[in-house]
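Deliverable D2.4 — example input (structure tokens):
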């Protein structure tokens, strides 16, 4: 073995399994085992290939992949932002009735006509006041907030159902007050001036009835889920 010139670890001339440190001038007492060579890792396994298809056969369809890489199930109701693909019928009744009621408050609520000697001389229509429209609109907005989860088909909590029931009662109060107002005006007119319900009031009554049916339906759904 030739004498090394640069300091470093070299094969020990007296022990083939170890190395000894050369300081540039002579061998020191520092020894260590020879570093063993790391085994070469085996090559990665190749995935098994599909067997060849017989003539005329079609390959099976692969799974559908989302953008995130997760597989999409082919069956089951599709959901968007937590809403079911098929909304609740009761929720649709509540919201549909509210739309009808809100539209109705912008239509004439009563028709005022003058009758004398069996003839009608003058007739005009009376709409709801601005305050009445505001009251109905606010009650409808509260009802929408309470019934909003029903659009996803989920059962409402008892607190929401009680609030919806109270909201329906308040909407019915508008009908009762309007009807009593018409009757009172007819009583004061002594047969000369006649006040009759107009299309707006009748449409409002229909909308409130639809809302009430939807709320009753929601109560029935709640009772079925608790069994």
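Example output (designed residues):
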């Amino acid at each position: 073995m030739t004498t090394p010139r640069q300091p470093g670890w070299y094969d020990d001339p007296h022990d083939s399994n170890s190395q000894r440190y050369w300081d540039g001038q002579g061998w020191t007492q520092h020894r260590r085992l020879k570093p063993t060579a790391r085994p070469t890792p085996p090559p990665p396994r190749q995935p098994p290939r599909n067997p060849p298809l017989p003539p005329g056969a079609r390959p099976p369809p692969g799974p559908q992949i989302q953008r995130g890489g997760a597989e999409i199930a082919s069956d089951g109701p599709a959901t968007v932002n937590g809403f079911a693909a098929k909304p609740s019928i009761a929720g649709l009744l509540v919201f549909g009735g509210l739309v009808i009621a809100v539209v109705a408050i912008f239509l004439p609520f009563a028709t005022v006509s003058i009758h004398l000697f069996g003839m009608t001389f003058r007739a005009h229509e009376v709409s709801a006041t601005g305050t009445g429209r505001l009251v109905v609109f606010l009650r409808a907005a509260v009802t929408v907030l309470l019934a909003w989860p029903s659009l996803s088909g989920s059962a409402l909590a008892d607190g929401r159902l009680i609030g919806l029931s109270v909201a329906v009662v308040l909407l019915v109060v508008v009908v009762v007050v309007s009807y009593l107002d018409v009757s009172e005006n007819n009583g004061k007119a002594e047969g000369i001036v006649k006040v009759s319900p107009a299309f707006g009031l009748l449409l409002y009554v229909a909308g409130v009835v639809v809302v009430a049916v939807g709320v009753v339906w929601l109560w029935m759904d709640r009772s079925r889920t608790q069994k």
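The CA atoms of residues 18 and 33 lie 4 Å apart.
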